[in-house]
Amino acid sequence: AQKVTQAQTEISVVEKEDVTLDCVYETRDTTYYLFWYKQPPSGELVFLIRRNSFDEQNEISGRYSWNFQKSTSSFNFTITASQVVDSAVYFCALSYTSQGGSEKLVFGKGTKLTVNP
Amino acid sequence: EPEVTQTPSHQVTQMGQEVILRCVPISNHLYFYWYRQILGQKVEFLVSFYNNEISEKSEIFDDQFSVERPDGSNFTLKIRSTKLEDSAMYFCASSEAGRGRYEQYFGPGTRLTVT
To answer: Mutate which of B103, B110, B111, B112 to disrupt the A interface (most A C-beta within 10 Å)?
Structure first.
C-alpha cells in the first residue's frame, strides 16, 4: 500500500535560517511520482515540484531544493534562507495510478512551518 | 495562467440537506479529481473522473456522493444528505493526463460546514 510519512508535525525557525522538511514514502510500484505542495494560511494547495522515480537528481529552484533518495525512500525539501512568507503547511504526496490510468495522490499529514521575523 | 476555479468558497448547510460543489477545471485537462481535507488533517482522495466516468473512488466516496460533468466545463460533486462529518475543505483538481506525467492543479477549495 502507498503511504507517506512526514514525521515533523511543526517546525519553527527564525528568518534566514535553512530548514529541511522530511518525507518518507512507501510503495510497491516501480514507477511512481512524488510531489510537494504548499498550503498557505489562505488554504489553497500550491504545486511546488513533481519527481519521477527514475530521476534521482537533486533539484534546485531558487531558495528551494529537493533531495530524492530512492535507497532510503525519502524525498526531502529544503528551504534556504527562509522568509516569513514561507510560513505554511507543506505536504508531500505520492501518486498511485489505477489501471484506468487516472491517479490519486496519497498525502502525508503535512508539516507546519512557521518562520518568525 | 489557467487555473482551476471552485464555487462557492464557503457553503453552510444543515444536516440532511443536499449540496453541490462546483468546479471548473483547466480547459485542456482530461482528468478530474475531488479531494477533501478535514480541518487540520491531511488531504484525502475522494474520486477521479476521466472520459465521463469514475476511474477510481476511495472508501470515503460512498453512495451519498456523486460526481458529474454536466457540460464541457463544469465538474460537480454532490453530497445527497450531508452529515456533520462531511464538514471539510473540498478541493477539485485537474491534470492534463494521468499516470503522474502531469501535476494535478488544485482549485482554491470550498469550505463546507454542516450544522
So the answer is: B103
Note the Cα B93 to chain centre separation in Å: 7
Residue A93 C-alpha, separation from nearest chain B C-alpha, in angstroms: 9
Chain-chain contact of B56 with A33 (C-beta, under 8 angstroms): no
- Give the closest of A42, A100, A106 to B56, CB-based: A100
Quick one: which of B43, B73, B64, B69 has its CA closest to B54? B69
DSSP string, A28-50: S-SS-EEEEEEE-TT---EEEEE
The DSSP-derived string for B7-44 is E-SEEEE-TT--EEEEEE--TT--EEEEEEE-TTS-EE
List pLDDT tens digits, range A10-29.
999 999 999 999 999 999 88
Q: What is the distance in angstroms between the Cα of A13 and the nearest Cα belonging to chain B? A: 21
Q: What is the pLDDT of residues B6-62, one digit of tens each?
A: 999 999 999 999 999 999 999 889 899 999 999 989 999 999 998 889 988 999 999
Phi, psi (degrees; rounded to nearest 5) at B110:
-120, 125
